[in-house]
């Protein structure tokens, strides 16, 4: 039986084993998928051991995504652009490939599930970490007209924008200067403020009736940003659970060559 895993720290809360088991049952594929605790100082050793023992593929979550990128012998374009990896795959010659499904997963959730129009829109991206970097590329590929990156640490926003190398479409904003911005078509929260339980101050003027607001986090972690967006008047407010399901489906498809039905899996997670 093919063996898969998800590595992270902490990992007990991970929905990945459930998702991959659901997908496999849908498609009649037999596999073993386990959640494996991998604190960063032990990640390299644990992941190498898993693949040496015949592991076929692994998802990787916080805080190990950068290490997963470094461990791999080859990188897909999506991983290269993000600079971090959430999928590792053992190739037939035994080498490891790093991939990143965050950007594609977000775009699929926005476009196909929520019917958010991306072409030509003006987007505010909050955060400049690994997830922000992956989704920034995907948003530009999807045809957004203007992307403003705001991050608590401005230097990181600048590094992200420089890496995107499209100054005609991408600019950065200091956090406190956001109060001077007009309402956006789409606001994405790619900070970990909600997950960490820390406060994030945002002016209400950033959103209006026509704004779609999306938190990459989900569950309790997404509540503060979603509440802010509703207070600011945004009519369309989403959490990142759909993105999580789509990114998991992308890795499943990468490994098994067939795409599972994601709406079914998302419904099951929402009901749980
Ligand atoms: P990183 O640790 O790489 O980046 C965290 C970012 O959050 C940094 O830009 C950091 O700013 C910012 N930040 C943290 N606290 C605050 C605060 N109090 N106020 C303002 N900014 C803050 O994390 P990731 O990029 O990997 O993940 C970011 C979020 O996206 C997490 O919530 C994660 O759960 C979610 N995510 C969801 C996915 C999904 O499938 N739904 C997939 C991937 C991520 P600074 O640079 O100043 O430290």
List keywords for this structure.
272 residues, alpha/beta, 6-stranded mixed beta sheet, 11 helices, globular, binds NADPH dihydro-nicotinamide-adenine-dinucleotide phosphate
Task: Briefly summarize what is shown.
The chain is α/β, with parallel strands linked by helices. The chain has helices spanning 16-27, 40-52, 65-71, 77-82, 102-113, 130-141, 154-164, 193-196, 223-231, 241-256, 262-271, and strands spanning 2-8, 31-37, 57-60, 74-75, 87-90, 96-99, 122-126, 146-150, 170-173, 186-189, 212-215, 236-238.
Count, helices: 11
Derived from helix and strand composition plus strand pairing, the structural class reads: alpha/beta
Indicate the proportion of strand residues: 15-25%
Major beta sheet summary: 6 strands, mixed
Instruction: Spell the H/E element sequence.
Output: EHEHEHEHEEHEHEHEEHEHEHH
The rounded Rg comes to 18 Å
Distance between the termini: 28 Å
- Walk across the major sheet and give the strand order: 2-1-3-5-6-4
The number of distinct β-strands equals 12
* Mean pLDDT over the full residue set: 97
Shape: globular
Low-pLDDT stretches:
none
Bound molecules: NADPH dihydro-nicotinamide-adenine-dinucleotide phosphate
Q: What portion of residues is helical?
A: 40-55%
